[in-house]
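Figure 3 (text version): structure tokens given as input.
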């Protein structure tokens, strides 16, 4: 993409952010540690300045090792306040009660993300009546996200949610990072994505094979939890087939060859 074109897009986005957030008491950028949220944070700081912007990270407890450290370091380098919220319950303990999340039973988003976020927002609203949550959701990420709204009142959180880069493409996000010299999360080099949540929904056996090879101690927590399931069920149910993590750990290269990588969840970052 031509530098002039991205420059015009950046200018328009910064102006829009400044306008939309002009009357807000507090502005929170949902910073997951991924590329989109990094660009969003940088744009928002350019539009409003560090004094008016706060970052918000949802610590699910099952993010890729190293992701939280990157989030903290990035916010420190920007000089922006970082708020970290997390679930009341440990993911692995919840699995023992509910089973691993599946496509038709996605309890993970509610317990790991929405409930902690709702508690945080309710506390903030006691002191500030006009707050805004900014998210890095983009239209072209998935069929579901294409149906989201750029600016709306969240029915559960009762606050406005705004997606400034909703119309941006993935290549424009990468070009922004290159042109402005942003420090991208090093997990992209390892995984192709900075996963902030390793729930088993929308993860393939190949994704977990990579995890088994790169972060075996973290992967072992999933294997141990799977072994404790009273039902004898598997952590993964991929295209009608049960996949046991205990089998993946024996030969991860086999699963990398036989299954595709997924890289993204079509639902999580929409907040709806």
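Below: residues designed for each position.
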């Amino acid at each position: 993409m031509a530098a002039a074109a991205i420059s015009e897009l950046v200018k328009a986005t910064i102006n829009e952010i400044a306008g939309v957030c002009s009357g807000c008491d507090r502005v929170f950028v949902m910073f997951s540690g991924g590329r989109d949220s990094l660009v969003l944070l940088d744009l928002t700081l350019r539009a409003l300045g560090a004094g008016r912007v706060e970052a918000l990270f949802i610590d699910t407890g099952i993010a890729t090792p190293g992701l939280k450290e990157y989030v903290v370091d990035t916010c420190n380098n920007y000089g922006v306040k970082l708020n970290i919220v997390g679930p009341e319950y440990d993911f692995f303990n919840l699995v023992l009660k509910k089973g691993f999340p599946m496509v038709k039973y996605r309890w993970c988003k509610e317990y790991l993300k929405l409930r902690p976020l709702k508690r945080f927002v309710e506390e903030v609203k006691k002191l500030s009546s006009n707050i805004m949550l900014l998210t890095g959701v983009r239209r072209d990420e998935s069929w579901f996200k294409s149906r989201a709204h750029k600016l709306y009142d969240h029915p559960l959180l009762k606050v406005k949610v705004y997606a400034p880069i909703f119309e941006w493409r993935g290549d424009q996000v990468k070009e922004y990072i290159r042109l402005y010299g942003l420090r991208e999360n090093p997990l992209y080099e390892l995984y192709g994505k900075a996963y902030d949540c390793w729930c088993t929904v929308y993860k393939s056996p190949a994704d977990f094979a990579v995890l088994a090879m790169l972060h075996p101690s973290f992967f072992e927590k999933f294997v141990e939890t799977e072994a404790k399931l009273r039902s004898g069920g598997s952590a993964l149910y991929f295209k009608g087939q049960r996949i046991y993590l205990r089998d993946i750990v024996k030969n991860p290269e086999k699963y990398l060859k036989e299954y595709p990588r997924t890289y993204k969840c079509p639902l999580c970052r929409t907040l709806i």
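The first strand starts at residue 26 and ends at 30.
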